[in-house]
Design brief:
82% of the residues lie in helices and 0% in strands. It is built from 16 helices and no strands. It has one domain: Growth Hormone, Chain: A (Up-down Bundle), CATH 1.20.1250. The protein has helices at 3-36, 38-46, 50-78, 80-100, 104-130, 135-166, 169-188, 206-236, 241-244, 248-254, 257-271, 281-298, 302-331, 335-362, 367-389, 393-401. The protein starts with a helix and ends in a 10-residue tail after the last helix. By secondary structure, the protein is mainly α. Helix 1 (3-36) packs antiparallel against helix 5 and helix 5 packs antiparallel against helix 14. The model is unreliable at 1-5, 193-202 and 392-411 (pLDDT under 50).
Length: 411
């Protein structure tokens, strides 16, 4: 094989990946303002309390599932690149409506519509990044992908306080418009729908395939719980005593500690492969979710709240990385499996805040009732994960013996 051709193909692939990661980062900036960070805006500008924020988050979760599941069908008809261009045009225009009419009903309606369209772009991006990569290369790509969106998200949330206090209200919505315009230009420079073909790789041995399948199931059972925590905390964080007692700029920084922890967890997971063959680590992560959530929302002291956020970030990083990696490695980077991954995210966005809203309707004067309802919901995946993780002794012995038999080379 001509080495010059290999060098050229490698350069093309690297350039393509860089543009995809840049598109992802720009999308992350917009999403963390319009989808996750909107609760700081509604609390600061409209004075919304926990119940209204949770209600908005619930509506976002419903449409997120629809958007994520629709991505594969649309991409098959018009192509992933065309889908991304069309979505980013719409996502650039929607925030301008909020600049024109910044009242609660208009903002809430636009945020829900934005969430619907935003959800459809992630499966296409995940598929474009993952396609044609062998398992070990895919692990590196997924690691970079996770670092880009998590780092961009942490930075955005930490800066929301500054945006809300230092600039006019319209700037909050002009930033998403600007980043989506830049994303459109970036997508136009992705020349083809398919990447250079990868070399053929041997299929994984049956034991490794079984471990990957189990890990995917465990991570995807925990994934809705993970998002229930994230979106419940997103809606609750501006109302917590520790955050409300802090200046606005410091408050949003304190609220982003779990995001910073998750970012460094992605670095650790990208630099190691131990978690590839130890699916039971996902059981521990599933158990950490409700415990950390309770610590963050119920302990009225700064140090324990920060400590619980750090632990939460570790668990969130493992669950998300495992769901995306194992789903993509088992499906060869399909948009369809990216859609399933994102749909489970939307399910958690709906179930977590939704259970809090329901509890608040029954006990409107007691925020702790809503928190308790969410916590009870979070323990359910732990039970299912334990049931899935109970393998026969022989299957367990095979899974633990994989690293010693050289299976790492296949990843």
């Amino acid at each position: 094989m001509n080495p010059i051709v290999n060098v050229d193909e490698k350069r093309v692939m690297q350039t393509r990946l860089l543009r995809l990661y840049a598109t992802e980062l720009l999308a992350t900036f917009g999403a963390n303002l319009m989808v996750s960070g909107i609760f700081f805006y509604t609390q600061a500008r409209f004075g919304w309390e926990m119940r209204r924020n949770l209600l908005l988050a619930t509506a976002q979760g419903v449409v997120y599932v629809v958007g994520a599941l629709s991505a594969n069908g649309i991409a098959r008809r018009i192509g992933r690149r065309t889908l991304l261009v069309a979505l980013n045009i719409a996502l650039a225009l929607l925030p301008l409506v909020c600049v024109w009419r910044p009242n609660p009903h208009v903002v809430a309606g636009i945020v829900v519509l934005y969430t619907l369209l935003h959800a459809a772009q992630w499966p296409a991006l995940e598929s474009l990044v993952s396609g044609t990569a062998a398992a070990r290369e895919l692990s590196r790509r997924i690691s970079v992908y996770n670092l880009v969106w998590s780092g961009g998200g942490a930075l955005t949330i930490a800066m929301i306080g500054t945006i809300l206090t230092r600039f006019a209200s319209c700037v909050f919505f002009l930033i998403p418009t600007a980043v989506h315009v830049l994303a459109i230009l970036m997508i136009f420079n992705i020349n083809s729908e398919t990447a250079p073909a990868a070399a053929a790789h041997a299929a994984p041995e049956p034991e490794l395939l079984a471990v990957r399948t189990l890990a995917m199931r465990l991570s995807r059972v925990a994934l809705p719980a993970m998002m229930a925590v994230i979106y419940s905390i997103g809606a609750l964080m501006p109302t917590l005593p520790v955050i409300r007692a802090s200046p606005s700029k410091l408050g949003t920084l304190l609220a982003s500690v779990w995001m910073i922890s998750r970012f460094f967890t992605f670095i650790l997971l990208g630099a190691t492969v131990w978690w590839h063959t130890r699916p039971r680590s996902l059981l521990a992560a599933a158990l950490v979710l409700p415990l950390a959530f309770l610590g963050i929302t119920l302990i009225p002291a700064l140090a324990p709240m920060i400590a619980c956020q750090i632990v939460l970030g570790l668990a969130l990083g493992l669950i998300y990385a495992a769901s995306l990696y194992f789903g993509m490695v088992l499906s060869s980077g399909s948009t369809e499996h990216g859609g399933y991954h994102e749909a489970l995210i939307g399910l958690g966005m709906f179930l977590g805040p939704g259970s809090g809203v329901l509890a608040q309707l029954m006990a409107p004067t007691s925020p702790s009732v809503g928190i308790a309802a969410i916590a009870v919901l979070l323990f359910l995946p732990v039970i299912v994960s334990v049931a899935l993780g109970l393998q026969s002794p022989r299957r367990r012995e095979q899974a633990e013996d994989i690293p010693r038999r050289g299976a790492e080379a296949q990843r």
